[in-house]
Backbone:
């Protein structure tokens, strides 16, 4: 454990690379590696550098995220998953980003920016802006409605400086046991793409679909969570390796007398004299306050319950009176220690949330250490 950090995460880049290769082998499709939200908290630059010879394309949520990758020297195609505002067309073109498009204003502005760039060039050199058409097949948060998509695509043909490279949709329920609506969405998507033979990249499969719905794989799969070794559903058809461990240190050890309380609000009251440890991590680091009084950590290879409320910078856990534990000892919040393991999914279940939120909430003051 790094002696200079009271809390840090360790990220195994080889595990992420192995997961990407396993997904490509399982699906037989090209891979769009989703690295939005700082690669789900794993660190977008190290992750993309590790995957640049494996992933066929990266996907992010915003133009700023795409620019960050370009400025770091990433040359792979980069897809902006959600249609940017038309005002950002200049940045999209200048940084060679691929925009998801679901509205005419953005498409027209991209075409206009390319036209302006051509007029500024001597000699004129035609360059097209690559786009992927985002189709709404029932998730109803963005995209061109599937019943109108073919007309929209036909209209886009009038914008001669756009290259319609891809067309895609988002599954709403692929990670659920009942996949009947996912099949409805897939059928709706097929009703669109049967008329788009000239578009080379058709994609719909997120992590859950990539692992469990073979008919959704198409030209390329678009995976995020599974890249980091976490299963989006109960099925585990591919061996994935968790890439992230979260560790902290014991900062204080003492005995609490009977009848005393612990942490803010004194919500936990002792019945007997107990030994406790204060651990230097809290919700200021992204450790969920919802784990107050019900989460566990690993110390000395043994599960230890959290007592009282999770604070911004500290949590308190129970020790056994016979433990050979000292200040500075390692605490595992997520990961393995000895024969025990606490996974991201377990943390999410106790916090009544999802693994995505646990990962992306790990704060900036938690140092990332890459293995």
Residues:
């Amino acid at each position: 454990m790094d002696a200079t950090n009271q809390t840090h995460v360790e990220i195994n880049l080889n595990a992420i690379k192995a997961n990407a290769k396993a997904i490509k082998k399982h699906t037989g499709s090209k891979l769009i590696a989703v690295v939005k939200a700082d690669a789900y908290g794993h660190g977008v630059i190290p992750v993309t550098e590790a995957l640049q010879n494996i992933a066929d394309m990266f996907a992010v949520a915003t133009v700023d995220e795409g620019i960050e990758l370009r400025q770091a020297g990433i040359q792979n195609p980069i897809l902006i998953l959600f249609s940017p505002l038309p005002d950002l067309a200049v940045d999209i073109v200048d940084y060679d980003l691929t925009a998801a498009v679901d509205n005419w204003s953005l498409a027209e502005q991209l075409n206009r920016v390319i036209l302006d760039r051509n007029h500024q060039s001597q000699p004129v050199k035609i360059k097209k802006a690559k786009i992927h058409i985002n189709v709404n097949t029932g998730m109803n948060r963005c995209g061109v409605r599937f019943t109108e998509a073919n007309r929209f695509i036909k209209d886009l043909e009038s914008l001669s400086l756009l290259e319609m490279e891809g067309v895609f949709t988002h599954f709403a329920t692929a990670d659920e046991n009942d996949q009947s609506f996912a099949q409805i969405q897939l059928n709706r998507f097929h009703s669109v793409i049967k008329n788009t033979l000239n578009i080379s990249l058709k994609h719909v499969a997120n992590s859950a679909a990539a692992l469990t719905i073979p008919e959704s794989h198409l030209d390329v799969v678009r995976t995020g969570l599974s890249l980091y070794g976490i299963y989006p559903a109960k099925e585990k058809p591919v061996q994935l390796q968790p890439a992230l461990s979260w560790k902290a240190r014991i900062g204080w050890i003492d005995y609490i007398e009977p009848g005393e309380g612990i942490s803010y609000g004194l919500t936990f009251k002792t019945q007997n004299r107990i030994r406790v440890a204060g651990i230097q991590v809290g919700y200021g680091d992204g450790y969920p306050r919802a784990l107050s009084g019900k989460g566990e950590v690993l110390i000395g290879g043994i599960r230890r319950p959290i007592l009282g409320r999770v604070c911004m910078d500290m949590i308190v856990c129970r020790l056994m009176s016979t433990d050979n534990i000292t200040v500075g000892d390692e605490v595992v919040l997520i990961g393995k220690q000895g024969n025990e393991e606490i996974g991201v999914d377990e943390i999410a279940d106790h916090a009544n949330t999802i693994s995505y939120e646990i990962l992306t909430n790990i704060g900036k003051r938690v140092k990332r250490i890459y293995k």
Remarks:
- Residues 104-120 form the longest helix (17 residues).
- The chain has a mean pLDDT of 95.
- The CA atoms of residues 188 and 250 lie 54 Å apart.
